[in-house]
Write a structure and sequence with these properties.
- By secondary structure, the protein is α/β, with parallel strands linked by helices.
- The protein has 2 domains: about 140 residues, 3-Layer(aba) Sandwich (Rossmann fold); about 150 residues, L-2-Hydroxyisocaproate Dehydrogenase, Chain A, domain 2, CATH 3.90.110.10.
- The protein is built from 9 helices and 13 strands.
- It has a 3-stranded parallel sheet with strand order 1-2-3, with helices on one face.
- A hairpin with a 7-residue loop joins strand 7 and strand 8.
- Helix 2 packs across helix 9, helix 4 runs parallel beside helix 5 and helix 6 crosses helix 8.
Length: about 300
């Protein structure tokens, strides 16, 4: 019956169907569901081992699909559903063991994927994903310091009394306690704030250094208050996906292989400014200001 109505209402105008943009979210915890509700795609697939909760989350999203931009929402504990259409470092070994299974499943059923890693410690797990998947490095991206940069803009804007969209700047390096604030790139409507205050980010009279500290500690504070973080990272990841699905070539600080850049010789994943488009990411040869001196704090995988 549905097919009859479809044929009466819809007249195909192209001989070949448009390839849909399918997004798979692995894990339906707080972060996974925040990503799910923020993402716009042709099809959203949820994967988790918790069958009852998984079905419940799928149904809940389906019931609200009138208000979403995703027309099809599916879920299964089987990774084949993707085929159609604490201190962060303490998480390492546990998550690596999980990734050894799930990454192979992703590549098996979705060999042409672009993978965005969100789980912490994100830089190390992005490296793990790259090695396990065998995908080209432009197809394996870590959320990295994208959310840190958003927080950076928010807290700077709050201090200035303006909207965050009018205040620009980025956080680079490791997504963790050694994040680097690029003060030389901070500007408000093309006005360099460091030119107005050359000591910005140091022990200056305006205490801008405190902004860096608050950014570094903000996730732990949210976790202390509500037990987890989810909404901000969900919105952050949705922004990364939009830049790729829409081929916007947006410049975002995300985690990628940095060997050979800024004198770094080790195979490590850290955040620096990248161009996100349909092909995944491409690296920028130059970024604003001095990047980081972090090599000694990062161990090889």
């Amino acid at each position: 019956m549905a097919t009859i109505y479809w044929e009466k209402l819809i007249v195909p105008v192209a001989e070949e169907a448009v390839i849909p943009n399918n997004i798979t979210v692995l894990g339906i915890g707080q972060v996974g569901m925040a990503c799910s509700i923020s993402i716009w795609a042709d099809e959203l697939a949820l994967v988790d081992v918790l069958e009852d909760e998984l079905e419940g989350e799928m149904m809940d999203l389906q019931h609200g699909s009138l208000f979403l931009q995703t027309p099809k929402i599916v879920a299964d504990k089987d990774y084949s559903v993707t085929q159609e259409g604490e201190c962060r470092l303490n998480l390492v070994q546990r998550n690596v063991n999980v990734f050894k299974f799930i990454i192979l499943q992703i590549v098996k059923y979705s060999p042409d994927s672009i993978i965005i890693v969100v789980s912490n410690p994100v830089d190390i797990l992005t490296h793990v994903t790259c090695k396990l998947s065998g995908l080209l490095k432009n197809c394996v991206i870590g959320s990295g310091c994208n959310l840190d940069s958003a927080r950076f803009c928010y807290f700077k804007a709050e201090k200035l009394g303006i909207h965050p969209s009018s205040c620009h700047g980025c956080i680079l390096g490791e997504h963790g306690d050694s994040i680097v604030a690029v003060w030389s790139g901070v500007n408000m409507v093309d006005i360099s704030l460091q030119e107005l205050n050359p000591e910005m980010g140091t022990d200056d009279s305006e205490n801008w250094k405190e902004v860096h500290k608050v950014v570094m500690e903000s996730a732990l504070e949210v976790i202390r208050l509500k037990g987890y973080t989810n909404w901000a990272i969900g919105l952050s990841v949705a922004g990364l996906i939009e830049s790729m699905l829409e081929n916007l070539s947006g410049i975002q600080p995300v985690s990628t292989m940095v060997k050979g850049i800024y004198g770094i010789q080790n195979e490590v994943f850290l955040s620096f400014l990248c161009n996100l488009n349909t092909w995944g990411l491409t690296s920028l040869k130059k970024s604003v200001g001095t990047l980081w001196d972090i090599k000694k704090d990062v161990k090889d995988l």
